[in-house]
What does this fold into?
Amino acid sequence: MSKSTSSFLTTEPSDLIRAANLLRQGESVALPTETVYGLAANALNPEAVRKIFTIKGRPLIDPLIVHVADFTSLQQVAEYDSRLEKIKSFWPGPLTVVLRRKSNVPDLVTAGKTTVAVRIPAHPVFRQVIELSGCPLAAPSANPFGYVSPTRPQHVADSLGNRCPWIVDGGPCQYGLESTILDLSSPDKVRLLRFGPITVEQLEEKLGKIEIVTRQENQAEAALAPGMLDRHYSPHTPIKLIARGADLPSPSDKTAYLLLSRRLTLPTSENIFYLSESGLTAEAAPQLFALLRQLDQQGFALIWAELAEPQGIGLAFNDRLTRAAAR
Ligand code: AMP
Ligand code: MG
It folds into this structure.
């Protein structure tokens, strides 16, 4: 079954049942999560999972995250690890954990690895669809590989168009940044693979010192071409970074400025965009991808973007902005 245009489904029970039925039949459906919109498919059906890679233009060497409803279902796809007890309180929520895989998980999902990335998401719509479908759902961000992740349903339609036939409209995403990824696959190491909404501070409080894996190390381990995942979350417009609170480089008509909050010292200008009123990173972060997409459509030659304080959620914010600026 395929359609020529994408259609929006509501979060009414009848539409969620429809989405769940489509997933059970091996189709791919875009769903809201608390992080970004995901392009979901039945994680145990290789044909369904293949559609995700095709729709996104994602290389098969880049493994997917499997979303499950609860801790019991998690153990149907991943081996139990006693360290999970210490971090269970972050679930349901924006935390992904890499564990040893069970043999029922298709190679396509894990890129042939002996490990699988799993998450118990919090978004009530996503949870209902998992439960109605009865399937663990593989779901990367619902955007073309390498572009800025979608945080609103229209973003999915804008960038995937009719390649993604069904989009469940759950409104804007709460965090607007992808999940934190923690690697527990080796028994004596705890490694952070990606900064996200669950912060290093929060994780270290439960687990002790965590090793932070740099993007370069991560790429080397995954045998990816240099820069392949560096250049991620990237708009087409070039981006340059400025430190929090730094003076703005000289203005020009063709240059946009993306700042964490309003600065009283600056004149009002059509080229200055603010991510929040308060300047708190937690309030600015959910707007980042939406503003990057908006500025990308406005034809600026360059975007100067302000980094956050490098702590808490600011580490995830800065990571995404730095990757968006990578060329
Ligand atoms: P996303 O594209 O946001 O869904 O995130 C998926 C990312 O999770 C991949 O690009 C990998 O960096 C990471 N990942 C998924 N599965 C694994 C795995 N088995 N081992 C290590 N990293 C993984
Ligand atoms: Mg992605």
